[in-house]
Amino acid sequence: MSEGLCQHCISGVRHKGTPEGKVEKIGGVDCYVATPSGAYDESKVLVVCTGVFGISFIDSQLLADDFARNGYRTVVPDYLNNDPVPEDAFDAPGRYDLSSWLRAHGEDVWKPVMDALVATLKAGGVARIATASVATAIAHPSLLKPEHLERYRDESKAPLLINGCEIDPAFPRDLQAKADEIFKDFAPGYERLYWEGCTHGFAERADFNHSKSKAGKEGAFEATVKFLDRYL
């Protein structure tokens, strides 16, 4: 299994509900799109990058719907090129060969997809784009190293929120503390929250039968919406 990935990437609890968005193509990219029911600022878009199960995973769709209910048009792109980890891997976490899958989904695969999406959104009048991820950057990051954080600090002008958690081999507490050190004087804005009793994947696939897991998912979502309200 590749460094930074763990069984928590393909474990958790499926949630129930009926997705309210729809799948459409944006810049040739299949996207699940959730749109607010009322008036909203059409110059702003939230792009949510899924975990390994892709845009058809109901938890990702319901999460996008929740952001839309808070006033943000939310776009979930298929940056995995219709090749997600199969959902039956959920039933036997730790047995699926994530290493091989990851090698087939490097930057050469996902970056052209994201570039095409962003270019099309901008051409359509979108002026401000926020990115949220259930696996990188905002909630329980994976595959991050200090040099990646340092590059973000040195090159990015976008504020950063990290929802970290207690049980996370992919982003352990020492690296979480290192992130605080790296971003302590980050002018655009930085915030890291720590959710006790939660496991990597909690922001998308929390177990609502466990009070800390439920509180972590709900708290991380609320914090993310407030962060978007402040900066986007």
Would you spell out the secondary-structure blueprint of this structure?
Blueprint (H helix, E strand, L loop, with lengths): L21 E5 L2 E6 L9 E6 L8 H12 L4 E4 L20 H6 L3 H17 L4 E6 L12 H10 L4 E8 L5 H10 L7 E10 L2 H4 L5 H21 L1
Parallel strand pairs: 3-4, 3-5, 6-7
Antiparallel strand pairs: 1-2, 2-4
Helix pairs in contact: 4-5
The CATH superfamily name is Alpha/Beta hydrolase fold, catalytic domain
Apparent shape: globular
Q: Could you give the order of the helices and strands? A: EEEHEHHEHEHEHH
SSE-based structural type: alpha/beta
Query: Could you list the spans in which at least 5 consecutive residues all have pLDDT below 50?
Result: 1-14
Q: If strands are numbered along the chain, what order do they take across the biggest sheet?
A: 1-2-4-3-5
Spatial gap, N to C terminus = 36 Å
Q: Tally the structural domains.
A: 1
Question: How much helical structure, as a percent, in the residues?
Answer: 25-40%
